[in-house]
Specification:
single chain; Elongation Factor Tu (Ef-tu), domain 3; two-stranded antiparallel sheet
Length: about 80
Amino acid sequence: MEKEIGKITHWYDKISVAVIKLTDVLKKGDRIKIKRGAEEMEVAVDSLQINREDVEKGKKGDDVAIKLPQKVKEGAIVYKVE
């Protein structure tokens, strides 16, 4: 089952980091799926940061940064995979 938990608002190419504006809770260890059109990627959240500080979880309204294995586009929707 998938539940929408946020949207990609920024992509940092040099460090392969995406910023997600959360509409729900996201924790380290969660599996997420990122979708935009036909593009789709599923990953486990290994690193999670808010304002360059490592955190265990982010909550609704937070802007969290996560490292990803490949580029994602701004506007992509983020889902938690359960």
